[in-house]
Write a structure and sequence with these properties.
It is a single chain. By secondary structure, the chain is α/β, with parallel strands linked by helices. It has one domain: Vaccinia Virus protein VP39 (Rossmann fold, 3-Layer(aba) Sandwich). Helix content is 33%, strand content 19%. Strands 3-2-1-4-5-7-6 form a seven-stranded mixed beta sheet, with helices on both faces. Strand 2, helix 2 and strand 3 form a beta-alpha-beta unit.
């Protein structure tokens, strides 16, 4: 992945993603934020949380691009439950061998109402089409891949289903990088006009998509036993029988 980001299409994608991350995380508040993977991009540079961490896999850390705060398996994060306010995953899901478990770990460590920001390559795009065609040619013994040959690309609607099953609510999403799948910077620049046009005309077919989701925790209202108010014990009225006869007897005695 590191080598691909040094190519013209890689630099083009990285520039778009940097702007999107700055826009998305700039107004997210809290205390603890975590970036998982992609040391080429500081996805938290616009965020103002006091504690920001970079976690890399062993393979990424071995490249020595930056010094991470921790080296860990993304499927078993060394954080307590409900301890992080923000987690960003720049291509971390599609480069992971077990993206489902990684996403469950993100849900575990996020606080209620915490946010996750995910960026992935879009298989339903011109770039994804060229990648599938290149895989077919490689089976025939020729051709080169256009995108990195690592992990599995995750479709936009498929990712939304995963998030929904984990009680995440998608807050916003966007697509970008609509230029054709050219390898040279010259031809990519010639088709720069397609970025604004693609955003209006075929928005879901950008080469990259971006999702911001919120962890929702449904409130549970405990209902106790229904207690009836104790019955009042009414004082029984004392009968006043032959009251008039008793009063007349008392009067005659005093006389």
């Amino acid at each position: 992945m590191h080598q691909w980001f040094e190519t013209p299409p890689g630099r083009y994608v990285l520039a778009w993603e940097r702007a999107e991350f700055d826009r998305a995380v700039g107004d997210i508040f809290g205390y603890h934020a975590l970036q998982m993977g992609l040391p080429e991009l500081d996805a938290l540079q616009a965020n103002r949380m006091p504690h920001k961490y970079l976690a890399l896999s062993e393979a990424e850390a071995a490249e020595g691009l930056v010094k991470p705060d921790l080296i860990t398996n993304f499927s078993a994060l060394p954080f307590e439950e409900n301890s992080l306010d923000l987690v960003v995953l720049p291509h971390s899901l599609e480069l992971n061998l077990d993206p489902h478990t990684t996403l469950r770990e993100v849900e575990r460590v996020l606080v209620p109402e915490g946010k996750v920001v995910i960026c992935c390559l879009n298989p339903a795009s011109l770039w994804g089409l060229r990648q599938r065609r290149a895989h077919l040619y490689r089976r025939l013994g020729f051709g080169e891949l256009y995108l990195p040959d690592a992990g599995e690309f995750i479709g936009y609607w498929r990712l939304r289903d995963w998030l929904r099953l984990l009680s995440f609510e998608v807050e916003s999403s966007s697509f970008g990088c609509y230029r054709p799948a050219f390898a040279s910077e010259k031809w990519l620049e010639r088709f720069s006009w397609m970025d604004p046009v693609g955003g209006r005309s075929w928005p879901i077919f950008g080469a990259v998509y971006f999702v911001v989701a919120v962890k929702r925790v449904r409130g549970v209202k405990l209902i106790g036993a229904t207690w009836k108010a104790p019955k009042r014990i009414a004082a029984a009225p004392m009968p006043i029988a032959n009251r008039s006869r008793r009063e007349s007897r008392e009067l005659s005695t005093t006389e």
